[in-house]
Amino acid sequence: MIHGIFGRPFLDLAPLLDLTDLAAVHDEVCLGLAQAPSTYTGGSHRSMGIMPASREREAGVDYGAVLADLGEADRRAFASLADDPLAARTAGATEFGEERPKSLSRRQQLWLEYRFGVYFPWKVYYEMIPNHYWDEKSSPAGKAFTREARTFFPKTIALVKSLPFQAVGRCNVMGLRAHDHGTVHRDGDPVEKAEVDHFITICPAANKRLFLCDEAGERRVDGVFEPGFERRVRELAARGAS
User: Could you tell me the residue ranges of all domains in the chain?
Assistant: First the structure.
């Protein structure tokens, strides 16, 4: 079942936001990503069990399955490429990855891609405000934009700070390479958390869309806001329904 926004499948928030600086932000992001080190993400969505059954084939080779089946020689190679190789020798390979105790190093990601053909959908992933687990994203305490992010993305950060959030707990730059596709997946289980955390996705290039997927109906449908902004979003939804 689709869990939409105030009874509607999607809302275009552009009328409520000042997006006049998007062109400058786009230029800055392109230049910044050419200089700041980025990583991959999203290569284990099938093994995490967060993809619709009808779309699982789109994940290609999933590193969760690969790591669960490594032979001894490959386990040693994998451990040697960790950020802390000594600690990695005593850790199981399946302890590494997205939503796992240990993050994959860049070297491990590349090895999994080259050695086993693992498909990482988002080959541009840059954390401006680092988080380890998904459920930490709305907790801003003790977090800040990194010094590197402030150096390469000042206009982007200014735009984020202008958005109607009471606080920002997570901020990433994510992108697909040409000819790649993002895997359809669920970031939160409505059974565990009925109310979705507030978020805004902005595409400065205006060539990608975020959508909801109705698995049963086999169709696609296309966001802690400040109270005043949430009221305006409700008003926008009401106008669209009338």
Answer: 14-39+121-241
